[in-house]
Design a protein that fits this description.
- The structure is a homodimer of 572-residue chains.
- The first copy, chain A, is 34% helix and 21% strand.
- Chain A is of the alpha+beta class and 572 residues long.
- In chain A, strand 2 and strand 3 (63-68) form a beta hairpin.
- In chain A, helix 13 crosses helix 14 and helix 15 runs antiparallel to helix 16.
- Chain A binds chain B through residues 90, 104, 108-109, 136-137, 192-194, 294-295, 442, 446-449, 451-453, 455-460, 462-463, 466-467, 469, 471, 493-496, 530, 532-534, 536, and chain B through 104, 108-109, 136, 192-194, 294-295, 442, 446-449, 451-453, 455-460, 462-463, 466-467, 469, 471, 493-496, 530, 532-534, 536.
Chain lengths: 572, 572
Amino acid sequence: MSGIEHRLHQLRTILADEGLDGAIVRSTDPYLGEYVPPELALRPWLTGFTGSMGEALVGREQAWLFADGRYWLQAEAEVDPRAWQVVRVGSSGALSAALLDRLEALARGRSEPLRIGFEADRVTEGERREWSRRLEDSVTLVAMDPSPVHRLRHLEGSPALSRLDGPMRSVGPDVMGSSVLERVEALFEPVPKSVDWLWVQRLDDVAYLSGLRGRGLPQQSTFRGVALAARDGLWVGLDGDRTRAAGLTAPGLDVMTRSELFERLGRQGGTVGCDPAHTTVSAWQDLSERARVVSCRLPVAAQKARKRPEELAAMRSGFRRADRVMATLIDEVCQRVVDGEPVTEKDVADRVEALFVEAGAVSLSFRVIAAAGTHGAIIHYGTPDPERVLGRGELLLVDCGGLFEAGYATDLTRTFLLGAPDETGSPRQRFIYTSVLRAAIAGMRARLAPGATGAQLDGIVREALWAEGLDYPHGTGHGVGINVHESPPRISGSSTTVLEAGHVFSIEPGHYDAEFGGVRIENVCTCVEDPDAPGFLRVEPLTFAPLDERLIDLERLRTDEREWLARYRQHA
Amino acid sequence: MSGIEHRLHQLRTILADEGLDGAIVRSTDPYLGEYVPPELALRPWLTGFTGSMGEALVGREQAWLFADGRYWLQAEAEVDPRAWQVVRVGSSGALSAALLDRLEALARGRSEPLRIGFEADRVTEGERREWSRRLEDSVTLVAMDPSPVHRLRHLEGSPALSRLDGPMRSVGPDVMGSSVLERVEALFEPVPKSVDWLWVQRLDDVAYLSGLRGRGLPQQSTFRGVALAARDGLWVGLDGDRTRAAGLTAPGLDVMTRSELFERLGRQGGTVGCDPAHTTVSAWQDLSERARVVSCRLPVAAQKARKRPEELAAMRSGFRRADRVMATLIDEVCQRVVDGEPVTEKDVADRVEALFVEAGAVSLSFRVIAAAGTHGAIIHYGTPDPERVLGRGELLLVDCGGLFEAGYATDLTRTFLLGAPDETGSPRQRFIYTSVLRAAIAGMRARLAPGATGAQLDGIVREALWAEGLDYPHGTGHGVGINVHESPPRISGSSTTVLEAGHVFSIEPGHYDAEFGGVRIENVCTCVEDPDAPGFLRVEPLTFAPLDERLIDLERLRTDEREWLARYRQHA
């Protein structure tokens, strides 16, 4: 029995003891974030699959791992097929639906409803309601608090399950363009008068509203804590020690520990508005014991997505430094390969990190992707290979970002030819690169009517690739802010996000082919009022790292695309 | 007291008698269709507002009419402001939400929940559930069956409230490409074994599954009735007399009256799967009294949207005839205007209808839009003016469709210059027309990757217009089938419909300007497997009425667009 099989066996024993037919094990952590600190990552521990997204369902006999297009190959390579069956799902948005489909199929034809456990601190109240509605009478969902997987992992002596964050810092209106009081005031604008408090659980929402930044979570500028917003101020409840925030003050801001926050709420009472989409089942329960809880949309995401000029200035400063990191890296790596030095993917990733530190970054904003040749086809290639030596004439795809003092993320991808400045790529390399570039240009210069959605922009970007019979199995872009992936906006075929001035998002078309490798070009962009068309918005790039001129077939560009490129180069 | 005030007063008396604080009065009818027969239209009778969409809320003191952007002016002009307050809502999709917001505001601060009635035969079970969830404890929704507005109208001696449909016909596998038995078999594929029956209430679903067509409802080929599908056959329950379907048989098809259908279900029992989105609260109740009812998605829409080759052939036959109607109309109208004859919009609309009848149509599929000059800017211009004489050099916008024997709708829009063959339009006319044409071409020749959504295609179509600072305030297209508006698919900025081979939909970009008028070019298209790019789909047009060459600025077309246009002309 493999280690993974043993873990599954132990979990099934616990489930059977509790009268459960199975359990859902999630990729997220109690902070509902995308990047889960290793000590809180239960699903990878249970499945062996290390990708950041993917839901697991453990049944009595079988267990399924639901992975989206980015992770099919990685999931199938990493899991023990005797223990886990990988279910290929189209997109990450469809993972839960696929899991529910499977549950319905399992329940079919049974006389009694299935009893399925879920982790109360890793499932939102909104998900619980939606799943219950969807499954109706066929499945009874049972809250497990704490997660039995957490218990098992603890028994196995895994890394410390609770770790303190590092020291904190704060940014003021000079960086954010607004004060804590202005932000909470805006937050309450659409909220009924009967609501006294708004519960804030997403870490980047807490960081946004408070102006506080942390450095304890890996590659994040958020910190572990929650918040309760009132009309006249914000309580932040830190997990663990609050001395790390000592001296960080702002009018209306009151920093305490999470338990102090709950105690004070219990004493004061009142009505707490909770957004089911952003509140865990556990937190909903904890709040309900101390106050009246009502469902209420938390309107922080739209506010956070519209960057103020001061925020854009702070972000641009980071983007400029990240652009220089990339330019330096490209020159260095090409030179070393041309000189015949053995440079590995891992060397590249390490060098990226060193360059970001030299540029003043607090940390990276995500793990560097450095993928040579066919590795480029693995879209989220997260483990640069220390054995894989870069070959001259190959393409190298580097996707990286940093976090600077103001706590906003950068994100940038370049694919370049490993060769001398006067070399050119193969016809195939040039064809693919130029096709992807045309798609990127379509996005980076798009004019958008009022009300334009992320899906419309996505179509505009893909059109150039589709016309060649090419496509990429991921979205065209994501919002960028305190988190490197912030939502809204989202640029994808199913995104109904209405794009607005001040939104900041990536445009990152690509092409991936197991034999050829991968090409991706990613720039972070924003929307501005279009000076030439009243009422319209125009997309414009915020990152300007050099494109690889050796891979561009200028003859395939239209005149307007060549003109755009010439202006872009002047920024670089 | 005006007539409308009197009606409201009577309704409030009934509501008070039943202990209700108010009532919701809907625009739809018990058939949940888009076109409501006049004798079933209660909301217009109660409010005075004749637009096809708009929800009403009657309170003890005040009454509100919720209208979307298309109808603000009309609603404000038509209602008696002493009785009704018009609430301006952005889009038709937000009407219910605005009504619920108002209800929440009314309920705020009250100690007891509000008791609000709704019309059980005009609200779906899904809406009832969603509204109840949304309103939580603040409002108690009370089913009214029948609608008290219906009773009042009857008392007032309004037009006969129940009217018989006309004679019926049926189409077989030669037209539909499948038999009744094959269609119900496909319908049950994703349905759990425990479900014996599927309830079918949407009229076009009943017509699709049964192969029956009617001609009693205005400009529809559906008929009044419901259906219960089993794995081995289909019961159709007609409203009123069933002799009009005498002799229309097919293996597995069993035609009866609605009351016979319920009686037989009561005798047989079993489990009925009902789709809350497509079942009225009344029907849900009626079914529950006779069988076990479970919620179940009715997978007919996806099946109906994928037209089989035989259906496409039947539709193409109608499109060809509609193309000839349009070609003839354009030639005739231009000739008459050039000859100096006084031709009005109404004359055009009448001539369209006559030409459709000559071409063998059973009826029109919607009211003809014939809009000259600035009238073209009114998107849903449904009343061609008998006084408005067409002027030489103006543009005329004609949007029309017919229903032929097979019962599929056609839909086609052309905008053309009222002038001689050798004239050309003004620079502005040519600029707008060519811009709209470029958008239409982008859609009619788009290549789509697997999984492409309606919103992506919408973005591809609009891009050419957005680049010029132009746009249109409506979707790019809608599905076309037995109903002229069939959904899925939908081509709009928020459409997550995944496009598939065999889908049939319009591509109808336009531009509207109160001073200039309107230009719209609409062709119905389909998706086919792309022979040049395995796995991809290609959009191709199904309608080929002539475009107005006098309005095309060929120099603004790219080479590939000119080539496409040359091929398109060969079809015309």
